[in-house]
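Standup notes
- DV: blocked on the single-chain target, sequence here:
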Amino acid sequence: MKSTSRDIRIRNCFSVLRHLIADSPTSRQQLARATDLSVATVSNLVTDLIELGVVVEIGREDSGGGRPRALLAPNTGGGVLIGVDVAETYVQMEVYDLGLSVLERVEERLDTSENSPGAVLGHIVDGVKAARERLDGRPILGLGVSLPGQVDVAGGVSTFAPNWNWRDVPFRDLLEQRLDLDAPIYLDNPLKTVTVGELWFGDGRGVDRLAVVNLGTGCGAGLAFGGELYRGASNAAGEWGHTVIDLEGPQCRCGSRGCIEAYIGAPAILRQWGELDERAAHGSQDEAMAALAAAWAAGEPAAAATIESVAVKLSAGLANLVNVLNPDLVVLIGWVTRALGDRLLPEIESRLPAYCLDATLGSLQLKVNHQRRNMVGLGAAALALEGHLSRINTVGARARR
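- DV (later): unblocked, structure below
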């Protein structure tokens, strides 16, 4: 689809605001250098952001002989954004100011039996109520919600959440009915929200071609090009975990055989370790994965053999992604990544050359995410911020005098 002048202006607006949030206080001239936009373009965008209450001038700096330059910062005393991370075992909600700093945090545990839409909605409603009581009347500009599974963003529908067996749940409409909230609600899945979080406040800021690879109970890849999230034709881009690497491989929960997830999703990793060590069956998935990591660090042969097998399949799967997309940066995230730690990275890097083309490997950076923040919640809030800016008619449409 061809970009309109409004699309370009809003993309530039996002770029300016990302740099301003990361490097404030800053000036229009510094923003122009950081974004490769002209000072005049940046000045016009900053004027829009100030009028929207998103940015404020907080003083002036010496320009080295000319007129002092105005210093800019996010309006952290204005409206707020809420990001909601819904997982199979918890609902975590964070309230952010416009600098994307956390003001409040509410967490509700989800029992395994609480898997109906009504139960999940109830926890979100309770969390929003608790958060609003602490905000002293500050306006909520938007609410972003990350739901597991496949999401119809435009319709606000959870089209398929396999772990809960949800199909075509009109989640946004149901949430709007239960919340007395004069603010728009945005839905997406964790892969998309965490990628937006990386674009706004992670390793992906300023990266042209980004892939965020999540290793958890399942696995997938969030994609962004030119600073924009790539969704695909039906918001299904990034289902890398369901690319097949062995037609005769193990059954995957999607119904196919030999998917990458069937080898490197948490249940698959623990199944492989369980064939060699009975500790894989003890405790929760988190506890078992931590035990595997400890056994690997201790040099136990069964754990080392399991990690070697996982590293081979993960490297082959990553090479397919890299050879197709030729990204500048791949960021590994997710609770399995955190559990196995930085020692996983050299295992992958040593094997990638066997599967990657020289041209794609030569331009690649591979990193493990070390953010202590909840990037899913941050990304959901950033989606709400993008939506707030995109909804305002004055952005990119106001005729200048």
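- Follow-up: The radius of gyration is 22 Å.
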